[in-house]
Amino acid sequence: EKGGYDHFMLKEIYEQPKAIRDTYRGRMLPNEGLIRMSGIDDNMSKFLNADRIIIVACGTSWHAGLVGEYLFEDMARIPVEVEYASEFRYRNPIITPKDVVIAISQSGETADTLAAIKLAKSKGAFVFGVCNVVGSSIARETHAGAYTHAGPEIGVASTKAFTTQITVLSLIALKLAQAKGTLSKSAVNAYLQTLQQIPNQVETLLKTNEQAKEIANVYKNAKNCLYLGRGFNFPVALEGALKLKEISYIHAEGYPAAEMKHGPIALIDENMPVFVIATSKGHYEKVVSNIQEIKSRSGKIVAVVTEGDETVKEIADHVIEIPDTEEAFTPLLTTIPLQLLSYHIAVMLGKNVDQPRNLAKSVTVE
Ligand code: F6R
């Protein structure tokens, strides 16, 4: 049932081109600039009249929500807040009927996310679900929604759920931008064309698997790792760190690259691998100077760069190249090598990749 792969996690990493394609298939017509999502179409006035969108989720789904914040604000100019469901539900939040809440959950069964939805509904908010499991509790409890079409995710560490959640959020952001007129017709069209290239680009990136294995072999005995990214790739840094810690039990932290000088830089020495996302768009020069700061303190640098990059290649110890795309879609690509790295490190350390200790696939307790 693992389809020839050693683990479900690796199988699911490799399923991402298909999962992403299945998630947008039938929903977009790039030549006509149309995005069909009945859950949004039927409730468009709620989205357009919303004072703000509140995204609630846990774990990896919360990281996808953070990417969603960047997408919605950048494309559709709607204010967004992203909340851990567990904090939101217990802090007496201000919610009104003019709020739209988007709940993101792979399993559709996460107890805290479900409770956050019930709270938001009781205050009159419109609640939209982004779930992977059809007919799950969260899918049933929300007023409307859009499914991710990742297929069953068995590995406890979420991989294809994350990239398909970002795919759905991208479609929603573009659809709202189209309806609000915050992006021109041609701009929406260009985004849709670019999104259609992502599955093939992920396919290409999966060919870096051997390279990921080599890099994993160099850093597998690290005790601590840092992950840095900016803008759209700050959430990817958080997700990269989560993926490593949950399956390899190596302590890892994700930070916005510019925050390094406010504390974490004190940790940098020759024993600290730093994984940096340094794609060509999105504050590239700033990230390059962050990389130089790490280098001058003898930190080891593994950089994810855009193909053709020369500057970072000169400084970093290892570089993994991603194909070029719109900055807004880079998380769909930069995530892939970080998944592979975590996977190989955990395998080399002999850990139970698909069922890490202390974790369950769906967290139905608070
Ligand atoms: C991480 C992971 C968890 C889940 C979290 C939310 O790899 O799997 O952090 O993302 O428990 O689960 P869902 O999305 O099912 O609500």
Can you offer a commentary on this structure?
- Helices cover 46% and strands 16% of the residues.
- It is an alpha/beta fold and 366 residues long.
- The chain starts with 7 loop residues before the first helix and ends in an 18-residue tail after the last helix.
- The mean pLDDT is 95.
- The protein binds fructose -6-phosphate.
- Fructose -6-phosphate binds next to helix 5 and helix 12.
Radius of gyration: 20 Å
Q: Strand-residue fraction?
A: 15-25%
Number of helices: 15
Q: Let me know the largest β-sheet.
A: 5 strands, parallel
> What is the terminal separation in angstroms?
32 Å
Characterize the overall form: globular
- Largest sheet strand order: 4-3-5-6-7
Q: Spans of 5+ residues with little confidence (pLDDT < 50)?
A: none
Summarize model confidence as the mean pLDDT: 95
Oligomer: single chain
Percent range for helical residues? 40-55%
Q: What molecules are bound to this protein?
A: fructose -6-phosphate
Number of strands: 12
Kindly name the structural category: alpha/beta
Q: Please trace the helix and strand order, writing H or E for each element.
A: HHEEHHEHEHEHEHEHHHEHEEHEHEH
Descriptive tags:
binds fructose -6-phosphate; 15 helices; globular; five-stranded parallel β-sheet; 366 residues; alpha/beta
